[in-house]
Structures are given as structure tokens and as C-alpha cells.
From TrEMBL:
SUPFAM superfamilies: RNI-like (SSF52047). Keywords: Repeat. This is LRC34 protein. Gene3D superfamilies: Ribonuclease Inhibitor (3.80.10.10). The keyword Magnesium does not apply.
Amino acid sequence: MSVLPDLHLHYVQACQKLSQPENPFIARVLQEADKNDEISTKRITLKIAGNNHLVPVQRVADDDLGVLASVLCQAAFVTGLDLAYNVLTDAGAKTMATFLQENSTLRYLNLMFNDIGTSGAELIAGALHRNESLVHLRMTGNKIGNQGGMFFASMLKINSTLEKLDLGDCDVGLQCLIAIAIALTQNKSLKAINLNRPLLSVQEDETTVRIAQMLKNNSSLVELHLSKHEMKNFGVERLCEALYENSSLRYLDLSCNKITCDGVKFLGELLKRNQTLEILDLNANQIEDVGAIYLSEALTTQNRTLQALSIVSNKISGKGLVALSRAIQSNMKLSHIYIWGNKFDESTCVAFSELIQTGRLELGCTDVAPYEVDGQVHLAELSHGLGKHRYWSPRCAAVAPDAANASLAIAPVSEY
């Protein structure tokens, strides 16, 4: 049963009871939460992240988490907990695992970039065998290793509640990726997974082939991140073959791989027939002008589903970029495009300046802004992109929800 909404008072009392000194950062966040008039009627997320502060804060440690958990056990109105960028270790993971086993209201948990290792991953994954409330878990940047990832793969065979799992930058390996692919052929609840930057000892597309096989059988996955997988054209071809049979995936992240124009040719053919993909991230590959033209042809002639495309840093010159600008003119569904880091010439600057000035492309939906010097148009960089707030989110409410969401406005994979 939930206590009255006085989190700070209960925190002070718990610290006294457990002989634990108060953490001023936690105390301040709880005081701010208590001032929220809707706290007793509306679900809230406690943002106790150790970054994004103008002044240093005392980051949350393992001992602090024990006291905080004892308070939250009686606060059913707290359905989200952001503990990113703190100093939690495997000991803190043990406390969190116990909390997850006992708690039935927490839906969002962000533990990204703490110091949780393999044993901590085992405890948290084990707790999710029984937990039936958590929908979104972020473990990004915790070095849980291949074995730690295997525990989450096993969990996915049992858990039927979790919808979004973030294991990016966790040092998982080949075995883990294969195990997760196998688990997702059976799991029907997970809608989004981040598998960015695994540690692969061989530069082959074996993991991509396994993931492609999974996509042929999975009908629930909406969002898939495969950045930094050393993926080549062969792997892209296998993914495209699978996506001809898949009707659920809407967000495909292939950024920071080794895809060239030959691989993009398969993506172009896929886009002509696929009626599901809404977001395609090809940031930091090597598609060049030929690849950009393949994409522009598909977007001009047949595809009316894709909403966002990132081709940042792909060695594309004016020829390819102008072709894409023409595709935007004829394809009204494509609303977001990110092009910075390519080879801008005068024709590129003029083409995208016209798109922006006519209102066809909004400044919030691209990463360039036009300016003029001595009668010549140039493009300046804007800090926008699909991953704008993937590792950071603003503490104020001034940013539109879709702008702060790597998945744009895809509701099933939002925080809740």
C-alpha cells in the first residue's frame, strides 16, 4: 500500500533507522518531487541521474540505494527511476534485484553507465524472471560482459512483460548475441532492443545472419539497434531478405558499420517493397553518391512509409545529396533527414536551403541550417539527430517529447 506522498520525510526517517548518512542529492530530488501537486494521482519518474548538473552532486552509491529502496517500496506512485551515471556496483545491483522482486509498480529503470558487472547482471536478470511490472530497462555502458549478457538472454525466454531492453556498450560478445537472437524467436513481448557495440573477435557477419533469421520469425520487435557490429554488405543483404518477411520492425539502426553502396542497393530494393520501416539510421557508413541515389530512387518512386533517414558522415557529395533533396520534394511522408558530415557543395546548400525556407523541411527535423555570406548560401550544423538524447535527456520540459526520443514518436517504445 502506498504511503502519503512525503518522500523526503520517509527518506530522512529511513536514514535514521538504518544509521545511514543522508545523500543531499537524493534528498533534494525527493523534496522537489514532494512539491508536485499531482504526485498522489499521477505516475512520476524520479530522476536521480549523476550527470546533467551545473553543480557537482554526490552520486548515488550502493549504501544510498538501500535506503532509497526502502522508501520506494511504499511509494506506488513512483513508476520510473533514473539512476544513470552514478557509482552503483554489483552490491547495488543486489539491492536493486531484491527491490524488483518485491516491487509491483516500477515500469522504467535506468541504470546506464554505472559500475555493474557480470554478477550484478545475473542478479538483475534473475529478478526479472519473476517481476511482472518493469517495461523498460536501460543497462547501457555497464561492463557486464558476454556472460552477463547471457543472463539477460535467458531472462528473455521467461519474462513476458519487458518491452524495451538496452544492452548497448555492455561488452557483450558473439555467444550473447546468438543467444538473444534465439530467445527473440520465442519472446513475444519485447518491442525494442539495443545491441550496439558488442566485442566481436572475428570480423564476420555471423551475428547479423543469426539476427536476420530471428527477424523472419519475430512479429513483435519494433526497434533494433545494431550499431558498431562491423557489418558489411553481406550482412545487410541477409537483413533485407529477412525484412521482406517481417511486418513489425519500424526502426532499424545500422550506424557505424562498414556498409557501402553495394549494401545500400539491397536496402533500396527493400524500401520499394517494405511498408513497415519508418526510421533508418545509416550514420557513419560509406554509402557515397551511388548509395544515396539508390535510396533517393526508392523514396521518390515507391516508398511512402519511411519518416526519418540519417546518412550523416557517408562520403556523399552534391550529386547524391541533391538527389535526396528531390526525393523529399516528391515524398511528403519523409519528414526527418540528417546529412551533416558529408561533402557539401553549392548545389547541396541551395537545395536544402530551399527545402527549409519553403517549409517542406522543418529546422527541428534536420541537422543543418542555412545562412548566407556575400550572397552565397552555406549550411551550418544543428545538434539534432536520431540519437540526440540517447545518452542524455534534458531536465527541463522545454524540449518536445518527440525531439527528446530517439524513436521519434513511436509510442510503444517510449519510457513507459
